[in-house]
Write a structure and sequence with these properties.
globular, about 280 residues, binds guanosine-5'-triphosphate, alpha/beta, P-loop_NTPase, Rossmann fold, single chain
């Protein structure tokens, strides 16, 4: 079994920084965490990439093509379609050229996939889902990590709309899912307090605030109330704050994702296998 985190979220929400932070944390804790860049428009990232989609196709290829004439967003969608069509390229990067060799190997690869910020790839287009299915067919267990900038989550109306964005990714990808609030280190004390309140959401206090001074909130008070109740009643969406300056915060979040991926649990099973009765062990000799 191999493990994958698919890092998604709106433009600039901190996906690539999350990948660097986790890779560095892995390095510090003697754990191998690899990162694959699947953003064909990436200019810069500070992690060491195991593979890079720009070796296959670059956004400029789609935009400068005489026939395609794509703008930046359409071009990006094209690049991801191209990736799915040329899945053998990705497979070779992840599985080695000859996958015969990989069969039967106890593999505990742990790979983060840094995705582009075009959220539509994951809310209603099919490429996000196709990518997940490909990874599963290559023996990966996949967890989606949805990043949202915490600076935009410190008022009730935005919190609701951020939650809905997370929910549409969850509904489309149908994978184990963790929502991360990034850049918590940038919040001042008041904003942190506000955020804490939302993290254990009491729908009524949240929505009481939404309806004040927000045209949408006032007009659709009942709707927002119903949405809030839905989210609360079904425990649909939870957020984990990430302060990338705080090792403990990083470690806690990784532990959370690990447990969703059941990472490490297979290792326990293997240890137990060794405790088989004596004669079973003799047979192996
Ligand atoms: N202070 C602080 N800045 C952050 C953090 N995460 C991201 N940033 C900054 O936010 C900006 C965007 O971060 P990226 O990691 O590039 O975001 P992204 O989601 O990969 O962006 P796109 O790939 O363009 O969609 C950069 O200037 C980062 O330095 C954080 O945890 N703390
Ligand atoms: Mg990025």
């Amino acid at each position: 079994m191999r493990f994958a985190q698919l890092i998604v979220g709106p433009a600039g929400s901190g996906k690539s920084t999350y990948c660097s932070t986790m890779q560095q944390h892995g390095f510090d804790t003697k754990r191998n965490i690899q990162v694959v860049n699947l953003d064909p428009a990436a200019e810069y990232f500070s992690y060491k990439a195991l593979a890079d989609i720009r070796d296959l196709i670059h956004l400029d290829d789609a935009m400068e093509d005489e026939e395609l004439h794509y703008g930046p967003n359409g071009g990006l969608i094209f690049c991801l379609e191209f990736l799915i069509e040329n899945q053998d390229w990705l497979k070779a990067q992840l599985c080695g050229a000859d996958d015969e060799i990989m069969l039967g190997e106890p593999d505990d690869d742990y790979i983060l996939f840094d995705m582009p910020g075009q959220i539509e790839l994951f809310t209603h287009l099919k490429m996000g889902k196709q990518l997940v299915q490909l990874l599963e067919s290559w023996n990966f267990r996949v967890c989606v990590v949805f990043c949202l900038d915490s600076q935009f989550m410190v008022d009730g109306a935005k919190f609701i709309s951020g939650t809905m964005a997370a929910l549409s990714v969850m509904a489309n990808l149908e994978q184990p899912h963790v929502n991360v609030l990034t850049k918590v280190d940038l919040l001042n004390a008041d904003a942190r307090k506000q955020l804490e309140m939302y993290l254990e959401p009491d729908t009524h206090s949240l929505l009481g605030e939404v309806t004040i001074g927000s045209a949408f909130g006032e007009k659709y008070r009942k709707l927002t109330e119903a949405i809030g109740a839905l989210i609360e009643d079904f425990s649909l969406v939870r957020f984990f704050p990430l302060d990338s300056q705080d090792e403990e915060s990083i470690g806690d979040l990784l532990l959370q994702v690990d447990s969703i991926l059941q990472y490490g649990e297979d290792a326990d099973v293997q240890v137990r296998d060794f405790d088989e009765p004596e004669d079973a062990r003799d047979d192996d000799m």
